[in-house]
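Structure ticket #2291
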Amino acid sequence: MKVYNTLTRSLEDFKPIVDKKVLFYHCGPTVYWIQHIGNLRAMVWADLIRRSLTYLGYDVKFVRNYTDVGHLTSDQDEGEDKMEKGAKREGLTPKEVADKYIDIFEHDTKALNILEPDFKPRASEYIKPMQEMIQTLLDRGFAYKTDLAVVYDVSKFPSYNKLNGQNLELNKSMAGKGKVEDPEKKHFADFNLWVFKKGPHARALQTWPSPWGEGFPGWHIECSVMAKELLGSNIDIHMGGVEHIPVHHTNEIAQSEAANDAKFVNFWLHNEHLDVDNAKMAKSSGTGFTLQEIIDKGFEPLVLRYFYLNAHYRSKQNFTWEALKSSEESLKKLRQITIDLRSQAEMPSTPATAEDFKQKFADFLANDFQIPQALALMWEMLKSNLAPSEKLRLLFDFDKVFGLELSEVREEKIPEEIIKLAQLRKSARLNRDFKKSDELRKKINSLGFSIEDLEGNTYKLKSLR
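Resolution: structure written out below.
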């Protein structure tokens, strides 16, 4: 099996620390806002990789954290804590904000059929071990105190840039820094381990006592500690978005390896971003779509999951409503094939050919998780001359990775209440009462069904569950 390792910028043979066991840490969300579909793509891809490893016979221990303190609006230790920003926006406490958006996030991940992590720690629950790691870094000379924070000294870690590949000049204090919130930092790349309740953060809402002064942890120390506490000092896989390479993951390595005397991560995996209409996704431009907005447009969550399958995790993917509609048609077709295969008469099977498909599928997964190629292979298999029972067996087997819930597909029976609402909506449309028509569509959606208008004033109903 080969996996692309960001640390070496190359495909490497995957060898776990313990044979057939994988320790997998995934950077989860900062829970101050609803996650958009770009964030959710990252979550689905971590799930696809986890499922692929399991399919290939590995026992995976999977951790995805929640950041509920310490993540400032800039990765460079500047700005407001994102949780406090959310609390002020909504008139809630930081914990209430975290609880609210964790609940929404978990509803979304369930709707997308993302497997539950083995552990899903909150950063705020690991303050004591964070303080212990910070003290270790101070004792070993990798950190120093300023009036505003306990700070990591990047000059003491010679391989600081081994992940991000940057060539920082480390001998000039403050070199290259545009905005300075802590003038006592020795170098612009030095980063906060513990932030005191003073200066820019004098009114911080979430603080704890510490040996160095009341305050809160820096964002980067949190993942180092949660990974160590739940998986150990040396882990197999750490995954996150490409935006984490320059600062967050670079800082995690520096902290963890200096504190633990061990290589932190053997394989670094990073997913690329999701664009919208070939432009960067942004809430400010109205393209930071949430899963609920996808549902409100009449698409079920698994259509979005199918859409994600069409681009490799290390490639950018472009979201358009047309592309989502195409994914909907493909998933609809796939479900109908599943129903048809269940009802077809048995034919002589060709197990050798079936096993060839299964081997090719495994080979695609073992080559840095080539899910788009595996998806194409599935369609090739369905067009083959395999017996219906063999096709159905392989389809359900492959779906252990795809996660499209095909084994649950049955002929659908629409409740009488939904049919009546659909008839009322049809009448409203014929009377050109589009306001009432839209209200009825939303009512149908709220009851777990979508309605698709077809030619000739006809329509089609389907479940969103």
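Closing remark: Confidence is low (pLDDT under 50) at residues 170-180.
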